[in-house]
Amino acid sequence: MNQPMRLNRYLALCGLGSRRACEEIILGGGVRINGRSIQDLATLVQPGDAVKARGRLVKPEATRYLVVHKPAGLLTSRQSQGGKPTVYALLPREAATLPHVGRLDAESEGLLLLTNDGELAQALTHPSRHIEKEYEVILDRSFDAALVPKLLKGIYLEEGRARAAHVHMEGGNNLRVVLTQGINRQIRRMFAALDYKVKRLTRTRLGPLKLGRLPRGAWRELLPREVAALQAASAGGPRARR
Question: Does residue 105 carry a catalytic annotation?
Answer without folding.
Answer: yes
